[in-house]
TrEMBL record:
It comes from the Bacteria. The N-terminal region contains the highly conserved SGGXDS motif, predicted to be a P-loop motif involved in ATP binding. One of its GO terms (cellular component) is cytoplasm. This is tRNA(Ile)-lysidine synthase. Belongs to the tRNA(Ile)-lysidine synthase family. Keywords: ATP-binding, Cytoplasm, Ligase, Nucleotide-binding, tRNA processing. Residues 25-195 form the tRNA(Ile)-lysidine/2-thiocytidine synthase N-terminal domain. GO terms for biological process: tRNA modification. The gene is tilS. It comes from Sphingomonas changbaiensis NBRC 104936. Its EC number is 6.3.4.19. ATP binds at residues 28-33. Pfam families: ATP_bind_3. It catalyses: cytidine(34) in tRNA(Ile2) + L-lysine + ATP = lysidine(34) in tRNA(Ile2) + AMP + diphosphate + H(+).
């Protein structure tokens, strides 16, 4: 069987990946990841390696993984099938198992970057879902263009500015029949409802929503930069000068102080500690005791008393 036609315009962002470095691809066999495969094969020939994760959740999953392997063989891309076991809450557990397997695979093959096929429609759906849950800025930034996957490996999403219809057209033009995951239409999942809302609402433009998510991500990055700088200027390792800090910057600084002690406070708990300090009361949270004053002092919390 001959190789499929590759897209005429590669146009695939490569972030900071060196031109000679191999790129990993997560290829499920669905239309989005197959479009990513075709675009990458045109843009980075001979510098790719693909993997398909078989979650073993559907009878057809192995056949779909083998079909992806066969397509990769036709276009000369090395391919591996990663079989995982999923336990617990289905979608969350499948995602965790998938990324863990892909991270281990990257390390085993000396891949520093792996690309997934998340696109503008995915971004728009994610933004709507997180708005509905009352997410803060970090959550509303939605799907990041790049993030650490595991030590030494970066996950990149080069198609966040592409519409799903564009990716479907690339695959159709190549004469490939992609796999279709029935869970994408399962009404039990929030993403299915968000997708249906976008399809039924003319004034909700996925591309514009994706642009909004990108602006929010830039704002999130700016706040993170400002929080790092404020921490360095105002925290001496034991005490913090909170004077004049905007509440959001103060929250992020406190999170960093607790993170340095292995603690990630829940939002309501951190809010209670902050309110106590502002009102002049000492508060304890996790491993730290915080004492108010012109500078807030952080010391190890006393051991908890155990009942006899």
């Amino acid at each position: 069987m001959s190789a499929p036609d590759l897209p005429a315009q590669p146009d695939l962002p490569v972030f900071d990946i060196p031109a000679e470095a191999p790129l990993g691809l997560a290829v499920s066999g669905g239309p989005d990841s197959l479009a990513l495969l075709l675009l990458a094969a045109r843009a980075r020939p001979d510098r790719l390696r693909a993997a398909t994760v078989d979650h073993q959740l559907r009878p057809d999953s192995r056949a779909e993984a083998e079909a992806a392997a066969a397509l990769c063989a036709r276009i000369g891309v090395p391919h591996d099938i990663l079989t995982v076991r999923v336990e617990g809450s289905l979608q969350a557990a499948a995602r965790a198992a998938r990324y863990a397997a892909l991270g281990q695979w990257c390390v085993a093959h000396s891949l520093t970057h792996i690309a997934t096929a998340h696109h503008a429609d995915d971004q728009a759906e994610t933004l709507l879902m997180r708005l509905a849950r009352g997410a803060g800025l970090s959550g509303l930034a939605s799907i990041r263009a790049a993030r650490p996957l595991c030590p030494g490996v970066t996950l990149v999403r080069p198609l966040l500015d592409r519409r799903k219809a564009e990716l479907e057209a690339i695959v159709a033009a190549a004469g490939i029949e992609p796999a279709r995951d029935p869970s994408n239409a399962d009404p039990r999942y929030d993403r299915t409802a968000a997708r249906a809302l976008l399809a039924a609402t003319d004034w909700l433009d996925p591309a514009r929503l994706a642009h909004s998510a990108a602006h929010l991500a830039a704002s999130e990055a700016a706040l993170e930069w400002a929080a790092d700088r404020a921490l360095a200027e105002r925290f001496d390792g034991a005490s913090l000068d909170p004077e004049g800090l905007p509440p959001e910057l103060l929250r992020r600084i406190l999170l960093r102080i607790f993170a340095a002690h292995g603690e990630t406070p829940r939002g309501p708990d951190l809010a209670r500690l902050t309110a106590a300090l502002h009102s002049g009361r000492t508060a304890t949270l996790g491993p730290l005791k915080a004492t108010p004053g012109e500078r807030w002092t952080f010391t190890p919390a006393p051991p908890r008393r155990t009942r006899k």
